Amino acid sequence: MFDSLSDRLGSVFEKLRGRGALTELDVRAAMREVRIALLEADVALSVVKTFIEQVTERAIGAEVVRSVTPGQQVVKIVNDALVELLGSEAVDLNIDVTPPAVIMMVGLQGSGKTTTTAKLAKFLTEKRGKKILMASLDVARPAAQEQLRVLGEQTGVTTLPVIAGQQPVQIAERARQAAKLQGFDVVLLDTAGRLNVDTALMAEMAAIASATRPDEILLVVDALTGQDAVNVATAFKAEVPLTGIVLTRMDGDARGGAALSMRAVTERPIKFAGTGEKLDALEAFDPQRVAGRILGMGDIVGLVERAAANIEQADAERMAAKLAKGQFDMEDLRGQLRQMKAMGGLGALAGMIPGMGAAKKAMDSGAMDEKVLGRMEAIIGSMTPKERAKPEILTAKRKIRIAKGAGTTVQEVNKVIKMQLDMASAMKKLRKMGGMKGMAAMMAKMGGGGGAGGLGGALSGMLGGQQMPPGFDKFTKR
Ligand SMILES: Nc1nc2c(ncn2[C@@H]2O[C@H](COP(=O)(O)OP(=O)(O)OP(=O)(O)O)[C@@H](O)[C@H]2O)c(=O)[nH]1
Ligand SMILES: [Mg+2]
């Protein structure tokens, strides 16, 4: 279904791919084309706008990983943003509850509720080994209950016997009761289709939902209706607590707008996609896979990921070698700061360095923010390579120059120097204790807590922990 979008994006990136360098203008021009492609795919305007802003900002600010081209890097950035747009992680059904779990299907007339109910029953039976009971609450259309019964026969799934004259809420209650007594794991409730404007049926749906309190209320929407599907979802969300979306007719020639806008607009995950009329044409919705299908550039995305992983690996090895020798210069400090930033915390070091527990806690509690790391990085960035390798040559004059370069004060430069010194001496101590092996022993002794000096101590001090070395207070947030 994403064919034309896929083609459009493909040709945008084709132009970027081989290029040796990309300017901001190149990126912006490419993003204008991506924007048009998304709009033509019927993605909601607000969603397109945010998406383009995000990707542009990331692409322009990105450091290009060695051994890939800037164009490839941009493809990876767009891929990641698409994955996020689609919801990042696949979201499973919430059915691991005290049985029976109740799943209620809602949606407009003809959206595919009854078919999807049967598909889901088959899926849960075959793939999850669940015992399923289906019940039709559709008393609005004469043949509806019979339709589900026939589907039950085709799939070998039990359906609740029909009792003429019962109302939806009663049927739902009876289904739950029967499931409980007969040991079913999941009850699937198929409901009557409604026109959006049909207030009576909307009210009935809300009544069923509040009487039955289902574990899942899945909205079934037709992907072919594009942005309308998103509007429908918004309208239903206002009536009942939706827990997820099923997009049907993904096998049709929908342009993709519904799939791409749905998550962002409704804040509900797409849990399944219907991909045909057959009863096995149902897929668990996986953002990564769908984004991959849209971009059709899995090879490039994989390449960039591998390159990044290799570099991290090489950096980690270099670092480990230095640590083993008991060295720690400004370059190492900068590497650590970057890693911390990249990991959104002190996780990079937490497993290696004694005393990091306290530092991590301080970070998590917000005692230190990204800006601080950035400022320290800027200070180190203003040093010459020689100064970074041999911080002991930093004279007062050099410090003034560095402070100016980083737009900060000599005091702050001194704090960074002090920090590097503390860490270097911690490294020496560690080495005396027997290098990396000693470190492990020391960690075992000290646990994640206080951190008796050393790198952990220096960091937790910097982070506003109890061990704050003199002069580090300015870097912590108050
Ligand atoms: N191609 C395709 N057809 C589908 C899909 N899902 C459902 N259909 C078809 O859509 C039609 C309507 O499906 P139903 O399941 O009866 O829809 P419904 O929402 O229960 O309809 P009402 O109960 O009348 O509101 C049927 O012909 C299905 O075969 C899908 O993913 N792909
Ligand atoms: Mg139906």
TrEMBL record:
Residues noted as binding GTP in the record, renumbered to the chain: 107-114, 190-194, 248-251
PANTHER family (alphabetical): SIGNAL RECOGNITION PARTICLE 54K PROTEIN SRP54, SIGNAL RECOGNITION PARTICLE SUBUNIT SRP54
Biological process annotations from GO: SRP-dependent cotranslational protein targeting to membrane
Domain SRP54-type proteins GTP-binding: 269-282
Topology term for the membrane: Peripheral membrane protein
Pfam (any one): SRP_SPB
EC number: 3.6.5.4
Free-text note on domains in this protein's UniProt record: Composed of three domains: the N-terminal N domain, which is responsible for interactions with the ribosome, the central G domain, which binds GTP, and the C-terminal M domain, which binds the RNA and the signal sequence of the RNC.
GO MF entries: 7S RNA binding; GTP binding; GTPase activity
Domain of life of the source: Bacteria
Family: Belongs to the GTP-binding SRP family. SRP54 subfamily.
Key words, A-Z: Cytoplasm, GTP-binding, Hydrolase, Nucleotide-binding, Ribonucleoprotein, RNA-binding, Signal recognition particle
Subunit structure: Part of the signal recognition particle protein translocation system, which is composed of SRP and FtsY. SRP is a ribonucleoprotein composed of Ffh and a 4.5S RNA molecule.
Gene source species: Sandarakinorhabdus glacialis
rRNA-binding listed as a keyword: no
Cell compartment(s), UniProt: Cell inner membrane; Cytoplasm
Entry-linked CDD domains: SRP_G
Catalysis performed (reactions): GTP + H2O = GDP + phosphate + H(+)
Function of the molecule: Involved in targeting and insertion of nascent membrane proteins into the cytoplasmic membrane. Binds to the hydrophobic signal sequence of the ribosome-nascent chain (RNC) as it emerges from the ribosomes. The SRP-RNC complex is then targeted to the cytoplasmic membrane where it interacts with the SRP receptor FtsY. Interaction with FtsY leads to the transfer of the RNC complex to the Sec translocase for insertion into the membrane, the hydrolysis of GTP by both Ffh and FtsY, and the dissociation of the SRP-FtsY complex into the individual components.
Protein name: Signal recognition particle protein
NCBIfam families registered for this protein in UniProt: ffh
Keyword Flavoprotein: no
Gene Ontology, cellular component aspect: plasma membrane; signal recognition particle
